[in-house]
Amino acid sequence: MxxxxxxxxxxxxxxxxxxxxxxxxxxxxxxxxxxGVSSLAQAAFLCVRDYLKxxxxxxxxxxxxxxxxxxxxxxxxEAVFQTMLIGLREISKIAPKIVKIKFTEKEVQxxx
Length: 112
Known about the structure:
There is one protein chain. The protein is α+β, with helices and mostly antiparallel strands. It contains two helices and five strands. It has helices spanning about 30-50, 75-95; strands spanning about 1-10, 15-20, 55-60, 65-70, 100-105. A hairpin with a 2-residue loop joins strand 3 and strand 4 (about 65-70). Helix 1 packs antiparallel against helix 2 (about 75-95). The longest helix is centred in the middle third of the chain and has 20 residues, at about 30-50. The radius of gyration is 14 Å and the shape is globular. The mean pLDDT is about 95.
């Protein structure tokens, strides 16, 4: 199962995400659910890092990707995360037993 955890501020804006697990519906490298979820998460990660150049904490390993902003969400980061979430929800509609999405309220700990 693929687990997507969406981190939100108290106002509901997204400040990050964690995606881990495997769909195990096809051999490694051929699983369309893993490929779809991975592509959405990696695109969001790369956009926040390389285009928006926001500061964040990250953790990544085989089958896992996590990022959490170090500053409050803004309109641009929200647009990126919402786009990822729309895609994840569509995959979850097709395969609800394979892709699970949950929301967790987190605090932003800004660097002073």
